UniProtKB/TrEMBL annotation:
Pfam families documented for this protein: Sulfotransfer_1
Domain Sulfotransferase positions: 64-323
Name of this chain's protein: Sulfotransferase
Origin species: Brassica carinata (Ethiopian mustard)
Transferase found in the keyword field: yes
Family: Belongs to the sulfotransferase 1 family.
Top EC class, one word: transferase
SUPFAM superfamilies: P-loop containing nucleoside triphosphate hydrolases
Keyword Transferase: yes
Keyword annotations: Transferase
Length: 326
């Protein structure tokens, strides 16, 4: 990752003069794919993402009932969104025949604050989120939302995933976005970027820790979930999620098999087979690339023991004393 000064005129039409001037005062780098990143409040953003973050920080007015789904990219965000939507919708949609997930992607149903809502406009019309609670998502670390959400009791669900699987998922995703083969050189540069922390929305440990700490301080506000636990014990985890969201399963629902129905409806197999996720575009990328293998430990097929050790040591050092382990 090449840390260097970049000109203040970043040549991006979506960036305001004010954001441009802020960018020129920030640490900058070019990532392994030539994308320019700037470090704002300890997190690396693409320039137009920073614009979304600034718009959000300035304009968002939380409501007490808001729910925000947060994650580092490639941690299973799409799955969490689908499950949340299915859980919240189930009182309206007793069958899945007309479920919103059949006509829109999980990312369309629960939009990203800084990547969709506040990137499209500095003062978006949130009236379309008329039914409560409003559901949003974000890849921002918690400290980026701290001031804006200050004093608000809104709920946050954070989904965390093993760093090595996140890295491999990121490598495949970036390759797919750029329509190139996921080659060795790219996995090595992705690995270096994860290790240095100079990755979009990184460093990943700062990201995870921001939510982990708050979940310990205030478990009623932040639910900390793990992708691996969702895979290993999906029923328990989806019930835990439903309870946190304020819509626990009734005994009758459980007896009628609704927990399994929701899990099946939101499975990678089902979601990726839906026409809406096969044929349409989200944020200029093909929706199908949000679904790949969805396995735990896939990193073992791509990272060598040297890489494994290096990343383990960095993670251990960064998470030391936090109580969080991978
Ligand atoms: P892999 O690349 O390891 O397969 P995000 O949604 O944050 O972009 O994360 C994408 C990762 O979540 C991908 O992981 C993808 O396959 C996996 N994923 C997507 N939908 C899923 C689902 N319904 N169940 C489990 N994993 C899912």
């Amino acid at each position: 990752m090449d840390l260097k000064e970049l000109p203040s005129n970043v040549g991006d039409d979506n960036i305001s003069e004010e954001a441009n001037s802020l960018i020129s005062s920030l640490p900058l780098c070019t990532d392994f794919q030539g994308k320019k990143l700037c470090n704002y409040q300890g997190c690396w953003y693409k320039y137009n993402t920073l614009q979304g973050v600034l718009n959000f920080q300035r304009g968002f007015e939380p409501q007490d009932t808001d729910i925000i789904l947060a994650s580092f990219p490639k941690s299973g965000t799409t799955w969490l969104k689908a499950l949340t939507s299915a859980l919240m919708e189930r009182s309206k949609n007793h069958s899945f025949d007309h479920h919103p997930l059949l006509s829109d992607s999980p990312h369309g149903i629960i939009p990203f604050l800084e990547l969709s809502v506040y990137q499209e406009s500095s003062s978006p019309n949130l009236a379309k989120f008329s039914s409560l609670p409003r559901l949003f998502s974000t890849h921002m670390p918690l400290h980026a939302m701290h001031e804006t959400l200050k004093g608000s009791p809104c709920k946050i669900v954070y989904l965390c995933r093993n760093v090595k699987d996140t890295l491999i998922s990121w490598w495949f995703f970036r390759s797919a976005v750029n329509k190139i083969e996921p080659n060795r050189s790219l996995v090595e540069s992705t690995f270096e970027a994860f290790c240095n922390g100079t990755i979009y929305y990184g460093p990943i440990w700062e990201h995870v820790l921001s939510y982990w700490r708050r979940s310990l301080e205030n478990p009623k506000q932040v639910l900390f979930m793990r992708y691996e636990e969702m895979k290993a014990e999906p029923r328990d985890q989806v019930k835990r999620l439903a309870e946190f969201l304020g819509c626990p399963f009734t005994t009758e629902e459980e007896d009628n098999g609704l927990v399994d129905e929701i899990l099946d409806f939101c499975s990678l197999r089902n979601l990726s087979s839906l026409e809406v996720n096969k044929t349409k575009i989200f944020n200029k990328v093909d929706r199908s690339i949000f679904f790949r293998k969805g396995e735990v430990g896939d990193w073992k097929n791509y990272l060598n023991p040297e890489m494994e050790n290096k990343l383990d040591m960095i993670i251990q050092e960064k998470l030391q004393g936090s109580g969080l382990k991978f």
